Amino acid sequence: MTKTIGLILVLAALGNPTHAETVTVALKNKEFDRDYLKIKLGDAVEFKNEDPWFHNPYSLSELQSFDLGPLAEGKAKTVVFEQEGKVEVECAIHSRMYMMIEVTK
Q: Is the whole-model pTM more than 0.85?
């Protein structure tokens, strides 16, 4: 009976796979590499600094607020998005850096 329960659990997991993806957003030339990004619920966004100076990606959006702190050149941090809606992302160091992330089902 234990083998049957284990098989049922494995088959249930295979029938409902998770398709979460990770999308990399480069911080380069004091800009995000895109102004707009559309992702699915559960997807992650990796913010990677490709500049020789620090960046600090953050969001004060009610949907998903975060502050990744100062990122040195070559460093990256990831945020998982688990609510549907729009999230404004900025850089605390470079005020002209802005992007919108739309999270959909």
A: no
